[in-house]
Amino acid sequence: MRILIIHGPNLNLLGKREPQLYGDKTLAEIDSVLNRQAGTLGIEITAFQSNSEGALIDFIQAESPEADGIVINPGALTHYGLSLRDALAEVKIPVIEVHLSNIYAREQWRAQSVIAPIAKGQISGLGWRGYIAALRTLVGELRAESWQ
Ligand code: DQA
Question: Is the pLDDT of residue 147 over 70?
Fold first, then answer.
């Protein structure tokens, strides 16, 4: 099983970017935690970050046919990235949207996500652990695991 982990604009600055909102882990540290989790789950992940909406779309078009699911933090594109939204609507695999901060507890414009309506679900405000929750949930769903 292969899951794509996609990080949008400005997330390359994690660690030093508004740590009170986004935490002090760098993107490399988050990807490394996800890689360890992937090892535990016995799956493969491919992580990608770009500050450009076009590059994110190119990655999704190229990689999604060979993947089983997507975990994406679209950054500010969450709120207005209609081309990204259309690219994600086109994929045939489940998408989980993740935000480090709680987008509903901040500026009003952040409370709208153009991605959420085409996502399977959204995790917002749980910091880096939100990525782990999204990955585990996606794999559990794809394997149709039950809790019993
Ligand atoms: C974010 C929230 C967005 O509003 C913001 O533009 C980001 C990060 C988050 O992870 O909390 O870049 O997606």
Answer: no
